[in-house]
Amino acid sequence: MKELTIFSPATVANVSCGFDALGFALESLGDEMIFRRNEKSNIQITKIEGAELSYDINKNVVGVVAQAMLRDQSEKIGIDIEVYKNFKPGSGLGSSAASASGTAFAVNELLGKPFSMLELTKYAMLGEEAACGSQIADNVSAALYGGFILVRSYDPLDIISLPVPDELYATVIHPQIEIKTKDARDVLSDHVSLKDATTQWANVGGLVSGLYSNNYELISNSLQDVVVEPLRKRLIPHFDKVKEAAISNGALGAGISGSGPTIFALSKGLDTAQKVAKSMHNVYNNTGIDFEIHVSKINTEGIKILDKK
Ligand code: HSE
After folding, report:
1. Strand ranges (DSSP E) for 123-241?
2. Fewer CB atoms < 10 Å away: N or C end of the chain?
3. Residues 169-183 pLDDT 10s
4. From start to end of the chain, where are the E strands?
5. Which residues line ligand 1 (CB under 6 A)?
6. Which of 27, 32, 128, 229 is catalytic?
7. Handedness of CA 16, 21, 22, 25 (dihedral sign)
8. Model-level pTM?
């Protein structure tokens, strides 16, 4: 194979109660990337559209991930990479994760698939480290595996794919302000009270159980975050109003997508998800802050090959 065009999805990490442990991928929002073998045996980022990002392969996550994979490989190939970003970095929708996991996936395809999914996740986590200083797996594994994922353990890395109820839709509102993941992690506390920890892990159990049993009421009751959201929501203008509007218009729950500022809601059915989108629109419409809203089914396939030559 000489050339590969892929779609790498945007992702919602944490999913309220599952900080650094839960995530899901979106069907209708993501980046496109083209990977083309070159004659020079080096990695080059030849085009970036849709965001101001470095072309330096030691700084851009795309270069970091591709170089790490090729270092561990006997076959020496060169690759030109084009990146077409459809959502901005610092959105809370896994922008760096889409680039990192897209690279891991595509380089593996060009090499003839020597790496396992878990190894690809580890390579993509190197990209997350380059982007925000921490090897976080929730966004990258959601992008790679698709659907809902649970990072059951970081050491050793253990990713569990969870089922996706058919009628589940996500609505996301992305205020056009940037929050760096590192800054959103810096506001967190290292200490959690036993009471809050109990609430949090009970909700993770409830959410996982709700996904397995198609129990939308249980999913709704479990979409609560008493640990991270209270500390981060002040970084996001009008967070409480958007959340209230989403829930009073029928959403199962709403919360911060990853490290924000995007706010996500989950709904049963497309009609409700669209009603929720309208209610979010109404909250943000007169704030003077630009925003984008997307309604999407959950992506159950992960990264998709759009074209290969
Ligand atoms: N779980 C991460 C966080 C996702 O919330 O900081 C952002 O990459």
Report:
1. 148-154, 157-162, 168-175
2. C
3. 999 999 999 999 999
4. 3-13, 22-38, 43-49, 78-84, 148-154, 157-162, 168-175, 253-256, 263-268, 291-297, 304-308
5. 13-14, 19-20, 136, 138-139, 181, 184-185, 258-259
6. 128
7. positive
8. 0.96
d(CA 19, CA 58): 28
* pLDDT tens by residue, 254-284: 999 999 999 999 999 999 999 999 999 999 9
121 in catalytic set: no
For residues 237 and 249, is the Cβ–Cβ distance under 8 A? no
**Residue 217, number of CB atoms within 10 A of its CB:** 10
Region 88-95: mean pLDDT is: 93
| Burial (CB count <10 Å: 0-12, 13-18, 19+), residue 173 | buried
Residue 166 and residue 47 in contact, taking contact as beta carbons nearer than 8 Å: no
Which atom of ligand 1 is the closest one to the Cα of 138? 1
93 C-beta neighbours (distance < 10 Å), count: 29
Those residues with Cβ within 8 angstroms of residue 288's Cβ, 6 or more apart along the chain or in another chain: none
- Higher pLDDT among residues 41 and 191, named by residue: 191
